[in-house]
Amino acid sequence: MSLTDILHRAWQRKGLLSTLLLPLSWLLEMVVRYKRRRFRHRPELGYQSTLPVIVVGNIYVGGTGKTPVVIALVQALQARGWQPGVISRGYGATVGDHPRTGQGQLDPANFGDEPALIAQATQVPVAVHPKRSQALQQLRHTYPQIDIVVADDGLQHLALGRDLEIVVQDARGTGNGRVLPAGPLREPVDRLQDIDILITNLQPGQIAPAPANTRARQLCMHLAPVKVEQLSTGLTLDWATWHGQHARQTMNAVAAIGQPERFFAMLRATGLQLTQTVALPDHDAYAISPFSALPDAMILITGKDAVKCRRFNDERLWAVYAEPVFSDPEWLDYCHDRATAIAAQKTGMADEPRRH
Predict the structure, then answer these.
(1) pLDDT tens digit string along 8-40?
(2) Do 179 and 102 share a structural domain?
(3) What is the model's pTM?
(4) Are residues 137 and 31 in the same domain?
(5) CA-CA distance, 159 to 174, in Å (whole number)?
(6) Total number of domains constituting the chain
(7) Count of CB atoms situated within 10 Å of the CB of 25
(8) How far from chain centre, in Å, is Cα 24?
(9) CATH number for the domain including 119?
(10) Are strands 84-88 and 197-201 parallel, antiparallel or unpaired?
């Protein structure tokens, strides 16, 4: 069992290890609360955009399923007449001093795997930089047609003003309710009282945690496969067609995401028999192929991994693209309505840069 697995297990209860780490958590919590109060009372310290800004993030460390939510939100906004742009940190890429922008097929080495996947799935402009306000400004400069911004992650990046906050969690909820390192939270659990929407991402058969103490709209989601692509040929089939042709075949699965078992469980829930599964670290660069050691059979990978694995030209690789199914799909209309009202309020505003 890895150190990460040990910590995540410890973070589900208030045991001895968690209690011993509490003094460090208290220090972090003090810093987090101070920073949030400072930006709340002095919004001029941050960058306030004239466009509506929606942040999709989490307070639980690690992967909870933000990227599928970002893609679904962007596509819903597009369907309702918006021209969205996406900003992200660009985790895993060396961005440099200046924000990097692009659209369509992007190199994950330059943008990060998640921004590359978002750009591929939505075809909207994307900008990456650790300072999200700089990414937003460069995005608007390069693509002046955008009229709304979705931030992939960045809930804790307080220098970026935001109008709506969406938090994605999974079945672990808030764990033991403690802040790092005694618990899994980046911020105190009462942070959920200030957000607008809370989405719980569940695997097949999982039970949602108890509703959070928050005014936010709360709903659940699960991921369902919708299409499959053979990376070496580009052959793309809808899930039902592909499943009907290949479900009885021997196959393996590889995933380099925050919770690889979530991907494997989704596949098994459709009746697939996975001979071998390989869980790699989140954002693994695939510097060398992990597939050569696997038996000579079909290998299923995630869409996030596909943006980095196409270069292997391995005919065994099939990318499974999944989409979220929401218990309350009307939350997307809610975001549209809120963004429309916010855009009307911001008409005539001038962008306010961060003041030092």
Answers:
(1) 788 999 999 899 999 999 999 999 999 999 998
(2) yes
(3) 0.92
(4) yes
(5) 25
(6) 2
(7) 19
(8) 27
(9) 3.40.50.300
(10) unpaired
